[in-house]
Amino acid sequence: MATFIDIDDPADPRLADYVNLRDVNLRKSLEAEHGLFIAEGAKVIRRACGAGYPPRSFLLAPRWIDGLRDLFDGLDVEVFVVSEALAEQVTGFHVHRGALASMCRQARWSAADLMATRRLVVCEDIVDHTNVGAIIRCAAGIGWDGVLLAPRAADPLYRRAIKTSMGTVFQLPWARLENWSRGLDELRDHGFTVAAMALSDESVTLDDLSADLRRNPRKVALLMGTEGAGLSAHWISQADVVVRIPMAGGVDSLNVAAAAAVACHELRETSPTGLSLSQ
């Protein structure tokens, strides 16, 4: 049975998992050291638990307890009950969704697992957690098989990435490439056509690549670059094809998450009848 514990001291050491959730550098070291991540909001907590991630503890304002009580059945876990004011003191922000859970991290997939699939988004050094979460959400929703992350890309299990993804980080397979410089060679060795999203004189339009894939179906790895500079020159030079989204109105590009959504939809794998194979 879950143990409910009322806490009224923000310095209580039992709340250590929840300290300063907005301090990215502190959270990186704390979460890596203790093998945890934070799920925020009842819906995300349910999805994390439903995906099989074991909870370490819960931090709840009293009004959220009844709505999550069924999750506690059979769990040997501590539920810290705090006021919303105290939760804000501990976490460093107003927990407007009212519920937090500290969950155990688990390595679910490897890069090798993902390379056995057919449609992958590959993120190079995308450091904004909300963009990583949004890319994972759109890849999951459009039916792609997974997301690969370069070593310096943001953590999909950071609180903001999880929240933006609406918990699809627990659903869609994702993993990190161990070798940034040779990762694209590995993709090609596994039969992928490597398509780099970039503005280039040699680029083809997304429409052209989509038409080519309909004529000659094959595996695709879609490379997305960092928010400012885009993809590195090294990755662009290593790609099989450079592709751009046709733009209008004097706009040269989209936000990386929006661009990923457009490209994932256009390059999704379809059957000869035009229906998505994921449907």
Automatic annotation (TrEMBL):
Q: Which InterPro entries match?
A: Alpha/beta_knot_MTases (IPR029028), Ribosomal_eL30-like_sf (IPR029064), rRNA_Methyltransferase (IPR051259), SpoU_MeTrfase (IPR001537), tRNA_m1G_MTases_N (IPR029026)
GO biological process terms held by the UniProt record: methylation; RNA processing
Which Pfam family, an example, fits this chain?
Answer: SpoU_methylase
- Which keywords appear in this protein's UniProt record, sorted alphabetically? Methyltransferase, Transferase
* SUPFAM superfamilies for the chain: alpha/beta knot, L30e-like
Residue span, tRNA/rRNA methyltransferase SpoU type domain: 120-265
Q: GO molecular-function annotation terms?
A: RNA binding; RNA methyltransferase activity
- RNA-binding keyword on record: no
Q: What is this protein called?
A: RNA methyltransferase, TrmH family
